[in-house]
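Tutorial handout. Part one gives the primary structure; part two gives the three-dimensional structure as tokens.
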Amino acid sequence: MNRKIIAVLILAVLAGVWVYDPVEAAEDSLSWERICRDTRYILRDWSCLESFVEPPVEKHPSRSSLNESLYSGASSFPGKRPDPDLASLPYHYLEVKDVRVPLYSTLDDAVAGKNSPRRLIPGFDYVSFTNQVKVKGKWYYWLSSQFWMPGDEAAYFGRIPTFQGLIFPEPPEKEFGWVLAEVESQDSPGSQAPVSTGITYQRYDVVVVLETQKEDGVDYLRIGEGEWLPAHRVGKVTLQENTPPDVEGERWIDINLAQQTLAVYEDGELIFATLVATGMEGNWTRPGTFQIDTKKATELMRGSFTADRSDYYYLEDVPWTMYFDQQRAMHGTYWHDDFGTPQSRGCVNLSPGDAHWVFEWAEEGDWVHVYDPSGETPVDPDQYHSGGA
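Part two.
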């Protein structure tokens, strides 16, 4: 380079015409591909992101796994937990706070806070990312959508639920379910001065239903010798002995809106069951018989159903999606752990592990039977929109 060119460059820099100072990442920046490539990503762990480790969540084991003999006649219950690896996801998520977060095409622009080609719309927003970098003490995230997002004060890590349902190498003889919230069993059915057994069941504990009895207009379930629970405290799987009307063949998915359960049948026998979260009031999951029309391993879901867009949502990399009724789908859900309670805008929310199992089993064209034995879900088609996450 001759002296004249060098002089021009020096003058340009001094004049502020051409200044380029590329950012330098801090030594504690993390590449998920580099750091986590050999680590299963189950988000109650965070073993590969030590700067963000949360205290481990102590899970109360299912009482049935502690001592099956506690259940009279239920010691041979055939339900098994699926492979825990099904709950792993190749995605890492951030819940974005309710602000218009700017996105940038380059890390340099993100650090400088300029040239933002896009912003996230305020609402219920989650993004997925594959890399994070710290520059001058602040974190920046490389999103799956190919943008950089500043992380400080803008977002925080989501927590992926690890709940999984049950597979059945052989069909169960008795009905069963999952406890929906911590509860003590009582020694007899009825609400008049019930006597506690002193035995506590935790959320998601599996119970086998040995008997159902109605007292004072309320159903109670006998789950052991001298042990009863109110039926509304359990998400119970109702075993189907016959193929539902309009279902052709012996493969179908059975979704009970009253119990918030999903059951998979093959050759007329139950092979898998779990808790789900279906549509909330006004966003109901529509009863009927449908077929899976599209399967997607990952999906971007976004939308709104109100004029002021106050219910706007934006969800990146929704895993294991199976559409069956317009925009209503069964899919993995990483943004809540409230299975057994209506939570969605019409879709059928499953835990990631459960959605993965169903996704691998299901084929396009398989039947989905949605029903509400309580009769509380509307049947008027005018009360339904196209559906959402």
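Part three, for discussion. DSSP finds five helices and 26 strands in the chain. Helices lie at 3-14, 32-35, 63-66, 107-112, 352-361.
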